[in-house]
Design a protein that fits this description.
This protein is of the alpha+beta class and about 140 residues long. The chain is built from four helices and seven strands. It has a single domain, classed as Aminopeptidase. Helix 1 crosses helix 2.
């Protein structure tokens, strides 16, 4: 597989919003991603193979901290290291000492990935997501 990473462009936002809805069942819109592109504290990266969107990550950096806002990988590209590469690239930003995120307590695959990258659970938000599941707070 020859997945490449690159910054998100304006023309990518519609497809990223579609992938977000498909993977996370949250109704974020193209406009949400477009707004983040305009703000310098946000970093948006995507992974693609042969022009097909494989995944993306959105992070917000206020040094020395970084928050992973959202991450999604298309089902056809899961378990191939795409999420690990996206996270590695975004977290390698100079001046980032602490990284944190929220993940659904039922998303065992994501929790395992984050733990393998050194994230530790630091708290819980009850019924945080639209479907009523709890969010685990994780920090690295």
């Amino acid at each position: 597989m020859t997945v490449r990473l690159r910054p998100v462009a304006v023309e990518d936002c519609k497809e990223i919003a579609r992938l977000h809805r498909a993977c996370l069942q949250q109704n974020w819109k193209e406009e949400d991603f477009l707004l983040w592109l305009e703000r310098p504290e946000y970093r948006l990266l995507l992974a693609e193979e042969a022009g097909k969107l494989a995944g993306y990550v959105v992070a917000r950096s206020i040094r020395p901290e970084m928050e992973i806002i959202t991450l999604a990988v298309d089902a056809a590209f899961r378990r191939q290291g795409v999420a690990r590469r996206l996270l590695g690239e975004v977290m390698a930003q100079e001046g980032t000492d602490v990284c944190f995120l929220e993940v659904s307590h039922v998303n065992t695959a994501a929790r395992a990935l984050y733990a393998s990258l050194g994230f530790e659970e630091t708290g819980r938000r009850a019924r945080y997501y639209e479907d009523g599941t709890d969010a685990l707070l994780m920090r690295r």
